[in-house]
Write a structure and sequence with these properties.
By secondary structure, the chain is an alpha/beta fold. It has helices spanning 8-25, 40-51, 79-86, 108-111, 113-120, 157-163, 182-186, 201-209, and strands spanning 2-6, 30-33, 61-64, 66-68, 98-99, 126-129, 151-154, 176-179, 190-195, 227-232. It is globular and about 45 Å long. The two termini are 14 Å apart. 43% of the residues are buried. The chain binds 2-phosphoglycolic acid. Residues 9-223 form the Glucosamine/galactosamine-6-phosphate isomerase domain. InterPro entries: Glc/Gal-6P_isomerase, GlcN6P_deaminase-like, Glucosamine6P_isomerase, Glucosamine6P_isomerase_CS, NagB/RpiA_transferase-like.
């Protein structure tokens, strides 16, 4: 893992340059995208670069990591809605080239069709990840099998607690989600993981310096050959 530390602004600018390089070299690149508070500044930077003509997503495709089960794309807490409003409407990507897993898959066999779609598009060139306080990537909670493909998960109470700030009450937070699996993520050619703030410092230490273990899903990224971890000074504060 290559660790890049700076102010949030600095590392966001550096991460955005990865997109500029990739899309200049391969305009039809396949991007793996993430939701949450972490990617928001990066998405704003990508939109700015796109508006300035320094970056184009006109031929790119995107596949998001995850979606809540039971939320329509029009629900303001669905990840489809998040992506439309925080990125897609501000860049030149074609709406039909953007993919978010359906929150209405009925079982894992149907969920896995997402992996087939990704493969048919040529595989993910660059996967963006945030990290949960418990080390989850996408909604792959601790102990998710290393071999998992896109599947339905029951959310842990800690994840529902962490996300309840976006809903009126904990009861409204969905209990299940559909997420790319660990194997799906590991198939990406390159991966960028971002984390900001002291709240992420401990899990970042376990991710970067701990032994790879399915108890900390993000630590498994140590087994991938091209992972960059972008951290602000707070998130990096416990690294030796
Ligand atoms: P956050 O969430 O970006 O809102 O911190 C990250 C995650 O849970 O994957």
């Amino acid at each position: 893992m290559k660790v890049i530390v700076g102010t949030k602004e600095e590392v966001v600018r550096k991460a955005a340059q990865r997109y500029v390089e990739l899309l200049n070299r391969k305009p039809e690149a396949v991007l793996g995208l993430a939701t949450g508070s972490t990617p928001l500044d990066l998405y704003a930077e990508l939109a700015r670069l796109c508006a300035e003509g320094k970056l184009s997503f006109a031929k790119a495709k995107s596949f998001n990591l995850d979606e809540y089960i039971g939320l329509e794309g029009t629900h303001d807490q669905s990840y489809r809605y998040f992506m439309d409003h925080n990125l897609f409407e501000h860049i030149d990507i074609r709406p039909e080239n953007t993919h978010v897993p359906s929150g209405f898959v009925k079982d894992d066999a149907e969920a896995e069709l997402y992996d087939a779609e990704i493969a048919a598009a040529g595989g993910v060139d660059l996967q963006l990840l945030g990290i949960g306080n418990n080390g989850h990537i996408g909604f792959n909670e601790p102990l998710t099998p290393f071999t998992s493909l896109t599947h339905i998960v029951k959310l842990t109470e800690s994840t529902r607690e962490a996300n309840k700030r976006f809903f009126n009450s904990i009861d409204e937070v969905p209990t299940h989600a559909v997420t790319m699996g660990i194997h799906t993520v590991m198939l990406a050619k390159s991966i960028i993981l971002m984390a900001f703030g002291t709240g992420k410092a401990e899990i970042i230490k376990a991710t970067v310096e701990g032994r790879p273990t399915i108890s900390v899903p993000a630590s498994l990224l140590q087994l991938h050959e091209d992972v960059e971890v972008y951290l602000d000074h707070d998130a990096a504060s416990l690294l030796s």
